[in-house]
Each structure stands twice: as C-alpha cells, then as structure tokens.
Amino acid sequence: MDIEVKVPSFPESVTDGSVVTWHKQPGEAIKRDEVIVDIETDKVLFEVPAPQDGVLKDIIEAEGSTVISGQLLAHIESVAGATVVAQSEAKPVLEQAVAASENATPDSGEVSIDNSSKHIAAPAARKLIAENSLDEHLIAGTGKGGRILKEDVLKFIAQSTRTKNVKNMPPGESAVSSTDKAVNPVSSLSLPISDRIEKRVPMTRLRARIAERLLEAQQNAAILTTFNEVNMKPVMDLRQRYKDKFEKEHGVRLGFMSFFVKAAVEALKRFPMVNASIDGNDIVYHGFFDIGIAVGSPRGLVVPILRDVDQMNLAASEKTIREFSDKATKGSLSIDDMTGGTFTITNGGVFGSMLSTPILNPPQSAILGMHKIQDRVMVENGEMVVRPMMYVALSYDHRIIDGREAVQFLVTIKELLEDPALILLDI
C-alpha cells in the first residue's frame, strides 16, 4: 500500500514554498516521524516527517520545485508491502545517501543518515568539507545529534586560518582576534581571489522576503532617524553586582537587552503613537506591547516577537530571548514566533557597529537601534571622566510620529537606562 507524503498546511500568510532538501532517496528505508524533506517558505523552514515506516518509493517534486499546501511530494511504500533492505545491503544504501547529500545545494539543511561510524554533516557542510579537503572528524558539530552544520565548517576554517597566520607571523607582531567577525564570503564560496570569476547563487526565500520588506519600508514610509547617547555605567554596575545571583536564581544570564526591553515598554506607554501603525487612512493604536528582537541566523535576519512584554520581568525577557536565539540558530522558529509585533529592537553592537540607521519593520512605525559600548571622555560637573557610552538610534515613520515625540521617546529611553532604578521601581 502506498502512503502519500504531502506538503503541510501553510498559514494564511504563506502562499507557497520551495523544496530545499530531500534527506532520503527512492529505495531507502524510512522510519515514522523521520524528517524526509525540508520546505522553505519566506518565513520559516518546514520539516516534513514520514507518516509511517516504509521505503521511499518515488519523489514527485524535486529539489527547487515550488509547492503549495497539500501538494503531493512523494509516495512511501508501507513496510507490509515493501522489500526491506537487508543488513548486508545497508552499507551501499548509506553510501548512496552520502553521495546524494554531497550533490545537494548549499544551505539546504541537514541530512538524516544513521551511520555511527562517521560524522553526520549537512549537505552544505559536506560540500565545504570536500572543497577545502578537510577532515570532518576534526570539526565539532553543533546541530541536532552532533551533526556538522555549514557554520561549523566556516568556523573551523576561520580558526585554522587564524592559527596558521599566528604561527607564520614575524616576531614582534601581534595577532588580532576575529572570533566575532564574519568569515570572508569569498573564501566561503571557494572562489580563487586571483581569478576574475563570479558565482551566481539564487536568493533563499527568506533573503528574498527580507529584501522585499526592506524595499517596501523605504518606499512606503517617511523614515527619519534621531540619535542620542546613553551612559551605560549604571546598568553595567548593576549587572556586575547581581549577575551571579541572578543567574543562580533564574538559570539565565543577565544581559543588556532585557533592560532595553523594559525601558522601551515604559517609553511606549508614555508615547503611544510610537506603538501605533498605519492601516490605509487609519491609525491603529495597540493596547499591548509585543516587541520584536532582531536575531541573526544562518538563514538571515529574523525578528521573533516577545509578546505582552509589559507583563514580563527581566528574567522572563532574558529566558525568552535566549530561547529565540537558540531556535534561530537551529532554524526551528515557527511562523507564530515571528508574526505580529508593534515595535522592534535591533542590536548592531554585537557585530561592532558604532552607529547606524535601522530600517522599519512594516507595518510598525518605529525601531530602536542599539550599538557598541565604547569608553569615551565625557564632561560631568565640569570635569572630564571616562564613561562606557552607547549611541542609540530611533528610526520612525514621520507620517504619524512627529520629530518632538521621537526625540522625547529616545530621551526617555536614555533617562531610564541611566537610572535603572526607575525601571525596577516602575516610577
């Protein structure tokens, strides 16, 4: 009896998707609930599991195909009527699966191959390993079940390059750590720098959607940006004093983002226009506070939503942000995680940005940008002192938010962060 494998039902906001990776090939045995194919939409990656045990009989929609909800993807021959792969045949089947994964497209996801004698690598990772003649047993995998992901290989290449550079440095020169810097994109594509060649790679659906939304924001909103600076010493002192107790009590580290979330909520309460949005000729005022936190992921920038943050304490904010960050890294964020939001916070400082003008996340009317904390000489009470300062930026839609409101909103953020007791005491 043949079992149909169909595209899962997409939410109303998703019209179609693309078949990214087949983890199994026709003739291979499949276990119930084992992920056999990945489908990428413009928001999330859907993992399609096998409905029951059996053997993959055929593939209807190949990698790269565009599919819609309920569309037939493949057939599985049930175990009762299937020719089960014998133990002596298991090795050739695994070798075929590995070969198939080597031919998969970059960034196409993970491969589900049960082979305890070898490390398991995602198709994009295996391609990089082969191109750079690496020993996969030296690469630590951070994916599910210890699988080696593309970012694991890139990190290994970067670390190897730094080690090689340090060893070859002339005496007296110092090495510059680049742990937090991105790997050279040219190197990751394995293009010889000396040759004038190009490599054309299609945008992922997520990247195409990001491009579409950013262009839409710039074309359909009157975006202005106002700037200010924050003395982060009070927050840093508070964090330093209580971070160990906080982590012991709540099981999560105390970061800076939760303070910014708390300050943003208070500022949004005082300036409800910043928490509003435009719908046609109407202004929609939101009586709730759902804040998006921009997170970098292997697939691109994503913005999961902290809902009802006015009801969260610092610990709840930190835990939720950590969960979202882990999900983004694993590619397991759901559409519900990223739907909605009335305001967004983005932190370019983690990448070293000193100052930027963030772009609105439609239909929201404002976005707060955090930046790198840098020691600077400031004048306090007529004396020069060194303080850890951060530039902050607020981009806003001038169609509904006046400059005075935007400036006062950002000043409120500044005042609350420079006296965090105001946040904790709710005054």
Describe this structure in a few short sentences.
By secondary structure, the chain is an alpha+beta fold. 31% of the residues lie in helices and 23% in strands. The strands form five sheets. Strands 9, 12, 15, 16, 17, 18 and 19 form a seven-stranded mixed beta sheet that branches. It has a four-stranded antiparallel beta sheet with strand order 1-8-6-3, with no helix packed on it.
pLDDT < 50 stretches: 81-118, 164-188
Rounded average pLDDT = 80
How many DSSP E strands? 19
Helix proportion of residues, in percent? 25-40%
CATH level 3 topology of the largest domain: Chloramphenicol Acetyltransferase
Class of secondary structure makeup: alpha+beta
Mind describing the biggest β-sheet? Answer: 7 strands, mixed
The CATH architecture category of the largest domain equals 2-Layer Sandwich
Q: Oligomeric form of this entry? A: single chain
| Principal-axes shape call | globular
> C-alpha Rg, in Å?
25 Å
* Secondary-structure element series: EEEEEEEEHHHHHEHHEEEEEEHHEEEEHH
What share of residues are in beta strands? 15-25%
CATH top level assignment of the largest domain: Alpha Beta
Classified in CATH, the superfamily of the largest domain is Chloramphenicol acetyltransferase-like domain
Distance between the termini: 68 Å
Instruction: Write down the domain tally.
Output: 2
Summed up, the helix count is 11
